[in-house]
Automatic annotation (TrEMBL):
Origin species: Circinella minor
Identification of the protein by name: HAD-superfamily hydrolase
Transmembrane segments: none
Pfam family, one: Hydrolase_like
One of the protein's GO biological processes: glycerophospholipid biosynthetic process
Superkingdom assignment: Eukaryota
GO cellular component: mitochondrion
Length: 340
């Protein structure tokens, strides 16, 4: 019948436009689902008068888990169907670093327990170190507490870091212990050849590359006021490094608003849109400095919603969006009205 044909044809006809949804502050706030998110995603999954789906990705500065796990989490919270290939996490584009570092010892910082260890291994980094392993090796690294056993990597008991030169530091998600992680990152950066416990002569010459997966100063959860994000942690690390060495920390950042992340998301959208990059991409976000700045700079349309970080009247003064909506459902309806 017509419905099965339409359903069939929707698989073949690439769409001229697509969406990129931020997660925190747009679809969810911590453990709370934003009610309008459910209907917004359902509309794009076919529950609309168009008789076809509209492609979309989730484009978040969040992470610390696999794309599969995030897809399941959001699908369950919104009671919709989102596939892992539609999910771009803060560290998803960092898979491009695997060739360069796959056989080096890489310190991966942040996230819950050893989840980022698993993510990095899953990407193809073969020798992944996490701060808890170093802390477990010598508890005096950070004498104020001991790491819990379930946060250690499988080989933790056999790792002697006096013999393990670390070749790079990558932050995959928010630190759960800023003090401990700033200490260990500085230990690596200021060491001889990345060997923790050594002190290089001239610490103003930085040899160990540092990568951050997001620069969010703040982000939106169920708490009524935004929380500090990875960007604030980075500022804290930079400040201590500057005080200790007199020079500025050099690092590379991924995530919104940086172009690398948008190029990666466009590739994903092309793949889920039957190989055709959509002519127009609408980014929906709650953080002007990340979601709106990044989309505007990359030539996408941007829609700022009021359910997260941004709570001022009117549009963002620093990073004005194409359009401002109350919430994500209003944003989807606005775009469909423009496009259809
Ligand atoms: O750690 C997550 C936070 O930085 C922001 O995530 O989804 O608002 O980009 P999101
Ligand atoms: Mg957000």
């Amino acid at each position: 019948g017509i419905h099965s044909y339409r359903a069939f044809s929707s698989k073949l006809t690439p769409s001229n436009y697509a969406f990129a949804f931020d997660i925190d502050g747009v679809l969810i706030k911590g453990k709370r689902t934003i009610p309008e998110a459910r209907s917004a995603i359902r509309m794009l999954n076919g529950d609309n008068a168009l008789g076809r789906k509209v492609p979309f990705v989730l484009l978040t500065n969040g992470g610390g888990v696999t794309e599969q796990a995030k897809a399941e989490q959001i699908s369950n919270m919104l009671d919709v169907q989102i596939s892992p290939e539609q999910v771009v996490l803060s560290h998803s584009p960092m898979q491009a670093l695997v060739d360069q570092y796959k056989d080096k010892n890489v310190l991966v910082v942040g996230g819950k327990d050893r989840e980022c260890f698993e993510v990095a291994k899953g990407y193809g980094f073969n020798n992944v170190i996490i701060p808890d392993d170093i802390h477990h090796w010598q508890s005096s690294v950070w004498p104020f507490r001991h790491p819990s056993r379930d946060s250690l990597s499988p080989d933790a008991d056999s790792l002697d870091f006096s013999k393990i030169p670390i070749g790079a530091v990558m932050m995959f998600h928010d630190s759960r212990d800023w003090g401990r992680d700033i200490q260990i990152m500085l230990d690596v950066i200021c060491s001889e050849n990345g060997v923790v416990g050594t002190q290089k002569g001239d610490c103003t010459v930085q040899e160990i590359p540092i990568y951050f997966s997001n620069n969010d100063i703040i982000w939106s959860t169920e708490f009524p006021v935004p929380r500090l994000g990875q960007g604030s942690f980075k500022m804290a690390l930079e400040s201590v490094y500057k005080t200790l060495t007199g020079t500025n920390l050099q690092s590379t950042s991924y995530g919104k608003p940086y172009p690398t992340t948008y190029a990666f998301a466009e590739q994903v959208l092309g793949r889920i849109n039957n190989g055709k990059k959509p002519s127009r991409i609408y980014a929906v976000g709650d953080n002007p400095a990340a979601d709106i700045q990044g989309a505007n700079n990359y030539g996408w349309s941007s829609i700022l919603v009021r359910t997260g970080v941004f709570q001022e009247p009117g549009n963002s003064s620093h990073f004005p969006a194409t359009s401002v909506c109350q919430h994500v459902e209003e944003a989807v309806k606005w775009v469909i009205q423009q496009e259809e």
